[in-house]
Amino acid sequence: MTDTTSTITDTSEAGLDRVMAAAEAAAPVFGGLRPAERAAMLRRAAAELDAAADELVPIAMAESHLPEARCRGELARTTFQLRLFAETVEEGSYLEAAIDTADPDWGMGPRPDVRRMLVPLGPVVVFGASNFPFAFSTAGGDTASALAAGCPVVVKAHPGHPRLARRTGEVVAKALGDAGAPEGVFAVVFGQETGRRAVLHPRTAAVGFTGSIPGGRALHDLAASRPRPIPFYGELGSLNPVFVTRAALAARGDAVLSGYADSFTLGSGQFCTKPGVLLVPEGTGLEALAADVAGRAASRLLNERVTEGFETGLAELTGHRVTEVLVRGAAAEGDWTPTLLRTDAASLLEHRDVLLEECFGPTSLVVTYTDEEQLVEVAGALEGQLTATVQAEDGDAVAARLLAVLTEKAGRVLWNGWPTGVSVTHAMTHGGPYPATTSVLHTSVGTTAIRRFLRPVTYQSVPQPLLPEALRDDNPLGLPRRVNGAPEAG
Amino acid sequence: MTDTTSTITDTSEAGLDRVMAAAEAAAPVFGGLRPAERAAMLRRAAAELDAAADELVPIAMAESHLPEARCRGELARTTFQLRLFAETVEEGSYLEAAIDTADPDWGMGPRPDVRRMLVPLGPVVVFGASNFPFAFSTAGGDTASALAAGCPVVVKAHPGHPRLARRTGEVVAKALGDAGAPEGVFAVVFGQETGRRAVLHPRTAAVGFTGSIPGGRALHDLAASRPRPIPFYGELGSLNPVFVTRAALAARGDAVLSGYADSFTLGSGQFCTKPGVLLVPEGTGLEALAADVAGRAASRLLNERVTEGFETGLAELTGHRVTEVLVRGAAAEGDWTPTLLRTDAASLLEHRDVLLEECFGPTSLVVTYTDEEQLVEVAGALEGQLTATVQAEDGDAVAARLLAVLTEKAGRVLWNGWPTGVSVTHAMTHGGPYPATTSVLHTSVGTTAIRRFLRPVTYQSVPQPLLPEALRDDNPLGLPRRVNGAPEAG
């Protein structure tokens, strides 16, 4: 067993000041590195994290109650992500380098030579999530994308896994330093008040956050209230509804229902992409689903705070007059078995303020509809979502309209799949309208997550030797660029 | 003379509700058009505005006190901008279409087929500026980029040119409608309280604003306070400092000083890119500059509110104990001649809270330095700027460091030019850290301004016929796309 008795004290106000000053001092040096140099640092961090797996995984298991295989897989995802961002940095199109050469005949009057690229914002404060202690925490997606962008990172450690945060931070900081990164480029700080101070700190340039709606909203408001407001990228909550057509149910009902049970119970229902609602036709036989769910093993939730939030939300759902409890989950010695509920579409719409709210943990709500038109109606009533899923068959008349409405509501729209499990790829979006996120223009997963930590700068008539290398005529970095509105000839 | 007696009443709350409902209803139709269809609408609006020049220009002159040549030039810029966005829409790379095909061997585990593109946000509310009644107002850059993105636009008319706003709006709305755009895609509303309501309106998806720091900040805070926060793109204030090295002054002092006088008096000093501060070596002869400025003609400011703000700011500057008045501008029958002030770099830094604030109107401050190191020091003390300019010679030792610091402070960095006059191009940035803007990631001028009104959506495993055309295998729209992280082979 790992040691759980040692306590970690909150970072002092002076300590945070020192960390932020060091991050700011590191910013121009780190941001000014060549792509290959920064990529090498990201790869070194990945390698050292992989090498520390046997030390880190047990700490993660002890602090998060997640099983070993899950922790090892998540760490692999984390280091894969760092390496993918290293590739992104080297490839260089993320800089959006563009050159408009001087043009005396430009339609609105003579145009000077203007050259644009993206530059790093400066120190980024990252609030990790409890449910993914590796991939969405200390060295997770926000950290990887901010470092890739060239921004120093200060992580506010999640109180659910402080020892893992500290140790992960040590490994990453040492790896970056060993690879030549400047002092101050990465640090971990502790304490809730420290987190508030970090959002308000004058040297902070942006914030990445993964967590609850109330917590994220409070920090969002704080960031907006600063004398100098800064971008706040909060990934908050999502219901992740799944819409099953009659035809899909008829063609593969058993597979749909067991896939649903797998998805909503994955990680004890503690995924931000957990399907919280499944819409199926009235008359769908739910006995096998209920038996399946009732037979699932109990598991410990992440921590006391998650458990309390789950118990409160669950009581509200199970006690609601329009819900029927199909499977009543139970807690034994802190382990929970999953709960399955049912209502109908009309009741869902009538009580949307309660029933369309996320309940983080092992529970989900089956909603029966009488008319497929109700699927479109429920879709239209949704708030912003990370994901929305359609289970349908070719030729389903409702599918196209459903996809159109869900495109307006969600960052990711799935067909005949399950929302849990977000692949880290170039074309991924893990985002969406509020309250899925506080910043609808962006994703927190996938290579385009880097865009959150960059801003455009244009150089007008600056001589070649004084231009950043990315914008010089001879393109010494070999970047993909646009010249006068079109891709530059190789 | 044009009729200035007719009054325009504020839009009622119910009237705004109707406009916003119509905009929301138009959003999916307008956003779902093919690129060529939306481009044709933008071109039709440009053509009809050009055709209405002889009607619109006199209204603009009467309401803004700007001369005819300036108004005609600005209208030409406005319609050029609409046509450039039409090209941008047709070219299609702004959609950032990306396809990652399914990959069972993907490094973090099997990857499904995921396809990403940008989609319009929904209805955008635009607050135009008074100082550019065409190019930054009703049919200006915010409107053009939002329409190009596929978003309906509701313009809150600037009170400085209500009749021009109304008539411009009529021309644009009719042109869009004649070209086949859905009802509700463009409207103009009136009244300050209407503007506040529009920012808070549940159907509003984003706001574009050009104006003062206090006004913009108040609306920014309102947008952030909504139950569903929305992006607020405010372009607020800027000092636009110009740093002149000893060598530049020695080599071409006369040209630098007369260029400065031209730039800061352009449009009666009512450009957001007006150089408010010019740093020159101590001992620089300022007599010719003072004579030049003193000889400049008087001109009427935009409106009563601008005049009042200018008088207050000017009194603060001229009455400050560390400033010397080189040329005292005077008002005669409402027309102002320019004011020129002087101080030294140490005093500027000591009283930066007053002296580094924008004073909108015909005045500027010459700052003398004893040591070129003070240029870097002043640059480091700046808040966010739209522009920063270096006047220097090849081989100037301070230039590289100055450019590096200014890159952190400004959206556009100029070399041996003047900041007034912002070309509309692909690589332009008209933006910068707060308070230059409230949204440091973006520009309000240039084709990338479209990015402000788009959000990413990813489709996972969606069958070909149900995918948006932009993401289908056969690429029916002929878009530039990225496939598996690299540009798609043509």
TrEMBL record, chains A, B:
<dbReference type="InterPro" id="IPR050740">
    <property type="entry name" value="Aldehyde_DH_Superfamily"/>
</dbReference>
<dbReference type="Pfam" id="PF00171">
    <property type="entry name" value="Aldedh"/>
</dbReference>
<dbReference type="InterPro" id="IPR044151">
    <property type="entry name" value="ALDH_KGSADH"/>
</dbReference>
<feature type="region of interest" description="Disordered">
    <location>
        <begin position="465"/>
        <end position="490"/>
    </location>
</feature>
<dbReference type="InterPro" id="IPR016161">
    <property type="entry name" value="Ald_DH/histidinol_DH"/>
</dbReference>
<dbReference type="InterPro" id="IPR015590">
    <property type="entry name" value="Aldehyde_DH_dom"/>
</dbReference>
<keyword id="KW-0560">Oxidoreductase</keyword>
<dbReference type="InterPro" id="IPR016163">
    <property type="entry name" value="Ald_DH_C"/>
</dbReference>
<dbReference type="InterPro" id="IPR016162">
    <property type="entry name" value="Ald_DH_N"/>
</dbReference>
<feature type="domain" description="Aldehyde dehydrogenase">
    <location>
        <begin position="4"/>
        <end position="432"/>
    </location>
</feature>
<dbReference type="GO" id="GO:0033721">
    <property type="term" value="F:aldehyde dehydrogenase (NADP+) activity"/>
</dbReference>
<protein>
    <submittedName>
        <fullName>NADP-dependent aldehyde dehydrogenase</fullName>
        <ecNumber>1.2.1.4</ecNumber>
    </submittedName>
</protein>
